[in-house]
Specification:
By secondary structure, this protein is an all-alpha fold. Helix content is 77%, strand content 0%.
Length: 96
């Protein structure tokens, strides 16, 4: 869970840092829509990311508390996805 928080925090930092260029270089189509709806600003995008991250965190916490047999699989899958995204988008972080 800590890894997910660290990556989400770093992603938010990079979103704010590169907001001037993000509307031109964002590869995620849903993020592009949110950026366009916000007139090129990042507030709506960050708000949506935070809301979804909160929901995922609550679900994972509930899975841990209930002792679900799928908890490890879900957390490992989320970590792998975050690692993939982290390295896939790495070159784009240095545009600004």
């Amino acid at each position: 869970m800590v890894w997910l928080c660290v990556v989400a925090g770093f992603d938010t930092y990079m979103t704010v840092k590169s907001q001037e260029y993000l509307v031109h270089f964002e590869l995620n189509p849903l993020a592009r829509i949110l950026l366009e709806w916000d007139g090129g600003g990042v507030a709506l995008l960050i708000g949506a990311k935070l809301a979804l991250f909160g929901i995922v965190t609550m679900i994972c916490t509930r899975m841990i508390e209930s002792g679900s047999k799928y908890t490890k699989t879900v957390l490992v899958t989320l970590a792998v996805i975050h690692i993939y995204v982290l390295f896939h988008y790495w070159p784009y972080w240095f545009i600004s």
